[in-house]
Sequence to fold (548 residues):
Amino acid sequence: MDIGAPVINREILKSESNKIRQAKLNRINITLTKKKEINESYKAMCELISDDALLVGFCRCVHWEFGELTTEEAIYALRQEILVLLTDKVFGNRSVEIIFRVLLSEINRCSQETDASLRSVDKTDLQKLLDLTDAEIQERIDPKFIRLIGIELEEIKDRIKNVELVQENHEAALKNLKPRILESTDLSLVPYLINVDNVFGWQNEIKEVFDLIADKKFISIHNFGGVGKTTFAKKFLAQYRDHYNNVIWLNVENSVSESIVLNTPLQKNLHINLSKETTVIEQFNMILNELDKTGENNLIILDIQKNHDQKFSEINRILSLRNWKKIVLTRSNLKNLNPYLLPNLNYESAYNLFKLHCSKEFDETLFREFLEFIEYNTLTIELVSKTIENSYDLTLEFIYDALKTQNLNSNLLKIDIDLNDEENRVVAIFDFILQSFSIENLENKEKYFLQYLALLPPSDIVIEDLILICGREFYDGNKLSYLNSINALEKKGLLQYENNKKSIRIHKILQETILYRLRNENSPFVGFIYYITWLSHRLAEGYNMLLP
Fold:
């Protein structure tokens, strides 16, 4: 609406108001009073818009409304509708763009006629235009007006959009025809070592694992908690990363499927948009299907953090990936997954690790006894050395004595130490050991049996003696029950077989943490009174057998 033309706008408003007045007056059964009221309202309206200033102000307040569309979107949509209508056969299959331009030019020309009766384009006028030749139609187009309203520019934009759409469709089709190949990419965040020289030992084992996965495609590296499986894998990557194309590292807290589905960097690198309407397993399978397209000779490392029973169906889905080699780090002895027992550090490597974090002097004979007591547990070596280094006057002798006397929770040892892991945690030695060797997720039967074993020597626990502790009359029942418990705990990496599976051992640090927890309970050992009574009877039987 042209706000600078009050005369024209006034006539429009009068005309539209009069139409409304006539419609109301033509209603059936309208009273004379009501008719008078309608006519007076119309007269008042005409007097109101006679004021030019008021009329201009009113017109400035008028805005186009296109619902939820922006003005640009609405005009574009309207133009597209017109172009569709112009494809009708009534227009003689002429160029839609030419017909559109000549109509706009004709409307613009008619709008400038002084005679109001000529300011319109009706059906007759349209037919006269269509009867013209193409050359004559071209002459009727006003190029200046067309450029003024930007029609040519819009047509160029449309053509560009059409070209882009064709390109996008072609790209999508090509992606479906040809698998996407990712080259030398870390598809997830990989915890590389800052200084590989600070990781001691396992050089022969690293080469051995490299050869094994080249041959068998997958391997599960296992041992007790704190031995250094994660550190071993980091050192492995530092040496052999360039031998693999794409690499994925997944820390598995609860389940393999969740660790993959919730890994945002992995999804972004694979260009996957997961629907929230699908289940975790459906999303898990979708990601694995995409991984199967990522070239050859890739490596995936699953670092299983806890002793939860993993769903082997999910692990097997990982193992089924054709172009991926797999390393599983776990405390559990997964016998069907090419298990590889990671050895403890040797003395030289353990010594170098301790000296890396502790600059204070210590007696080497005492250090050897300390290593034997903790069974060369890498985590404990690091925690003890850092605790001594951060203290004022703590010594290895003091901490070793605290370990042996179950006094690791002494206030003197509650010194903050840095772990320098991915989370840069600050911990105290006792709290962290309890957290790392927790058995809270075990079934009650397994937990109770493990607590009983914690009362025995840590190694050379003869299975036959365990079965006979209640007497020979209970041998068969106890044999089944004990073997099931031992196998379950061995599978979870909490026990290890020895001497051709005739005896078992429990890690010394795990044993110590279990005893710490038992001591904090009310009447902690009363539940084992029957075992102590039975053991007394068995000892008496053995003594009587030795009498003449």
Remarks:
- The chain is about 55% helix and 5% strand.
- Confidence is low (pLDDT under 50) at residues 543-548.
- Strands lie at 218-222, 247-252, 298-304, 324-330, 339-341, 417-418, 426-427, 461-462, 496-498, 503-505.
